[in-house]
Specification:
Length: 365
């Protein structure tokens, strides 16, 4: 009794129990949908359908969207109804993306696409995720070397104008980068604006760390105009405390010697946040953040095999980026450039204007 395939061997009461025990491995259920498993695929027992679906999704770097509440039933009869929830379940039960890649292309096989990283190591694109990272890197409008030589000299105290110009470059760079990375331009423009308005200050801190931006207190206070307007001692102390927090976040990132590929992934994880208000497709943005996180994890595992805690350390740096007040960044770096124009307005204008954007008070081209 049951829906199994016909059996050529006749069963008798005396050998039935033995026969069932011998056949047991063939009747293991697919851990994803409950159909009959055809064996172990990518780390788990699955049916041919779920095996093929997972392989196709991983190899083609596919992103799905759930039209319901991201909790659709995945069984034999409903597995084709929601690809988002099916892939989510594949990952939840332990199917491994990297197992697909190993079967597809050996890590020893060279690839023509390489990107030089800040630590000098090439990024070998031997998986679909490395291709994603390559596109993130390619989207950078200002490679670190073009931020200016003064930026790369930690002991050099920059003048006020140079600080403001560098800050403008970094903000513009963050928006231009977002406009050119995979998937972001496909989002509704209202979602793009919402994501950048929420995360611009975190992206700014990551860019500041990446280019080793000098953060000396005196010129920063001068840039913020604190010397020109009377301010209570308490406010000055509070402001200096904010500068210290900014400095600490930058120094902690620099201490990890984060390379360019890792910075790109961290920025993508920050940018694709479902915390932004009014998103039209929260699930899709979440899936893009997961994709970026998986890319970082695979990259770190392959490039830094002797640092098993590195991926965790990088991710743990992200929540504390929000401790750097966006209003303080605005006061420190942008008040001289844009006066009372809100940064959020500038970001929207940059996004809509693209590379033709002109700063209100100076050119950064």
């Amino acid at each position: 009794s049951g829906g199994g395939p016909p059996n050529n061997t006749q069963s008798t009461p005396t050998n039935q129990t033995t026969q069932q025990s011998e056949k047991q491995p063939q009747h293991i259920e697919c851990v994803v949908c409950g159909d009959k498993s055809s064996g172990k695929h990518y780390g788990q027992f699955t049916c041919e359908g779920c095996k093929s679906f997972f392989k196709r999704s991983v190899r083609r770097n596919l992103t799905y969207t759930c039209r319901a509440n991201r909790n659709c039933p995945i069984d034999q009869h409903h597995r084709n109804q929601c690809q988002y929830c099916r892939l989510k379940k594949c990952l939840k039960v332990g199917m491994r993306r990297e197992a697909v890649q190993r079967g597809r292309m050996p890590p020893t096989q060279p690839h023509h696409g390489q990107f030089a990283l800040t630590n000098g190591d090439p990024l070998h694109c031997h998986s679909y995720l490395s291709g994603y990272i390559s596109l993130l890197l390619r989207a950078e409008p200002y490679p670190t070397s073009r931020y200016g030589s003064q930026c790369m000299q930690p002991n050099n105290i920059m003048g006020i104008e140079n600080i403001c110009e560098l800050a403008a470059r970094m903000l513009f760079s963050a928006v231009e980068w977002a406009r050119n990375i995979p998937f972001f331009p496909d989002l509704q423009i209202t979602d793009q604006v919402a994501l950048l308005r929420l995360t611009w200050s975190e992206l700014f801190v990551l860019n500041a760390a990446q280019c080793s931006m000098p953060l000396h207190v005196a010129p920063l206070l001068a840039a913020a105009g604190l010397h020109a307007s009377p301010m209570s001692a308490d406010r000055v102390v509070a402001f200096m405390d904010h500068i210290r927090i900014f400095q600490e976040q930058v120094e902690k990132l620099k201490a990890l010697h984060v390379d360019s590929a890792e910075y790109s992934c961290l920025k993508a994880i920050v940018l694709f946040t479902s915390d932004a208000c009014g998103l039209s497709d929260v699930a899709h943005v979440e899936s893009l953040q997961e994709k970026s996180q998986c890319a970082l994890e695979e990259y770190v595992r392959s490039q830094y095999p002797n640092q098993p805690t590195r991926f965790g350390k990088l991710l743990l740096r992200l929540p504390s980026l929000r401790t750097v007040s966006s209003s303080v960044i605005e006061q420190l770096f942008f008040v001289r450039l844009v006066g009372k124009t809100p940064i959020e307005t500038l970001i929207r204008d940059m996004l809509l204007s693209g590379s033709s954007f002109n700063w209100p008070y100076m050119s950064i081209q």
